[in-house]
């Protein structure tokens, strides 16, 4: 989604908001946006786990939720995407703005109706994404599950970029 060429380390880089959406055959009428941790950069399996250490059977997908997961608009190595202004916006909040209506439309196409309830959850950077979604997109979700939100991750991203590129601050 939103494929484009943007600024990368040493030249142009390809960007897109990557995602995985899973629709269970025994849908319970609910939708879960699985926010991933770290600096993203890869699409995690959309099983609806809140913590990576949770068992495979405890995810929202196993409980009948439609689940989406995203790389938030960039591919690893993660620190390099910070050079591109649109990639930073996608990581910060725009991937949620783009994916949520699309996911709900896919759900309606598959099941003949919009979700009865929609939830957003994550831990660490996923917790930060969840807090941003709660602030910017509260009208799109019925609940937010936040664990250990990493509010200083944009600063960490900058520090990782500086260390990776050997630039002195």
Give the structure's gist in a few sentences.
This protein is α/β, with parallel strands linked by helices.
Structure description:
This protein is an alpha/beta fold and 169 residues long. The protein has helices spanning 85-111, 125-136, 153-165; strands at 4-8, 11-15, 19-22, 30-34, 66-70, 117-123, 143-147. β1 (4-8) and β2 form a beta hairpin. The model has no long low-confidence stretch (mean pLDDT 84).
Work out the helix count. 3
As a whole number of angstroms, the C-alpha radius of gyration is 16 Å
**Sheet having the most strands:** 5 strands, mixed
Identify the quaternary structure here: single chain
Order of strands in the sheet with the most strands? 3-5-4-6-7
Please provide the ordered H/E string of secondary-structure elements. EEEEEHEHEH
Number of strands: 7
Task: Note the beta-strand portion.
Answer: 15-25%
Summing up helix and strand content along with how strands pair, one would put the structural category as: alpha/beta
Low-confidence stretches: none
Overall average pLDDT? 84
Tell me, briefly, the overall form. Answer: globular
Fold topology:
Blueprint: E1 4-8, E2 11-15, E3 19-22, E4 30-34, E5 66-70, H1 85-111, E6 117-123, H2 125-136, E7 143-147, H3 153-165
Parallel strand pairs: 4-5, 4-6, 6-7
Antiparallel strand pairs: 1-2, 3-5
């Amino acid at each position: 989604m939103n494929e484009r060429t943007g600024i990368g380390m040493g030249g142009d880089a390809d960007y897109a908001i990557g995602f995985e959406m899973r629709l269970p055959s025994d849908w319970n009428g609910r939708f879960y946006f699985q926010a991933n941790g770290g600096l993203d950069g890869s699409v995690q399996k959309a099983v609806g786990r809140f913590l990576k250490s949770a068992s495979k059977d405890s995810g929202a997908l196993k409980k009948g939720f439609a689940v989406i997961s995203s790389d938030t608009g960039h591919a690893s190595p993660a620190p390099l995407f910070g050079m591109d202004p649109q990639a930073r916006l996608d990581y910060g909040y725009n991937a949620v703005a783009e994916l949520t209506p699309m996911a709900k439309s896919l759900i309606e196409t598959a099941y003949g109706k919009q979700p009865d309830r929609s939830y957003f959850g994550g831990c660490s950077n996923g917790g930060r994404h969840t807090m941003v979604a709660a602030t910017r997109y509260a009208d799109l979700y019925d609940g937010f599950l936040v664990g250990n939100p990493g509010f200083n991750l944009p600063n960490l991203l900058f520090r990782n970029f500086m260390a990776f590129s050997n630039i002195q601050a």
